Model the fold of this input.
Amino acid sequence: MPELITQTPEEYEAAAQVLAHNPARLKAIREKLISNHATAPLFDMTRFIRDLEAAYETMLREKT
Done:
């Protein structure tokens, strides 16, 4: 969700304030999050675990 990415603590605070004062925008973001839940890589725990294990195996191979 690129619309939630910030670069500085100040930008983060400003984005939070915008959402806090704009219930319609906050609702839209919540709805997008819910609708993307089934397909977004962020929530694919099986894939995450597989990729994490692969990274550990690579680090182990490179260390020995």
